[in-house]
Write a structure and sequence with these properties.
Largest sheet: 2 strands, antiparallel
Number of strands: 2
Structural class: mainly alpha
Distance between the termini: 52 Å
Length: 84
């Protein structure tokens, strides 16, 4: 049986998601701490050195774009748009 590896992060609580949706900065911080490793993994870029070895680094531009996407995804559900 496989077990979930959360690397000491614990679980993300539904209360944190709800509070973050209403703009609570502490809850938003908890969400970013929880997803930090995943976002860094998505923001990685690969490059080759002069000897042909592969190296990876976290691209700051990609990281800021992912940060923006997560912030708007968490905060946007509270904005009510009326089409009528």
């Amino acid at each position: 049986m496989k077990t979930c590896k959360n690397f000491g992060r614990g679980r993300l609580l539904l209360d944190d998601l709800n509070n973050a949706a209403y703009g609570d900065p502490v809850a938003m911080g908890a969400i970013f701490i929880y997803y930090d490793g995943y976002l860094k993994k998505l923001a990685r870029k690969k490059f080759y050195d002069d000897d042909g070895y592969i190296h990876f680094y976290v691209d700051d531009e990609r990281m800021s774009l992912l940060d923006f996407i997560v912030r708007t995804t968490v905060v946007m559900p509270t904005i009510k748009i009326s089409y009528w």
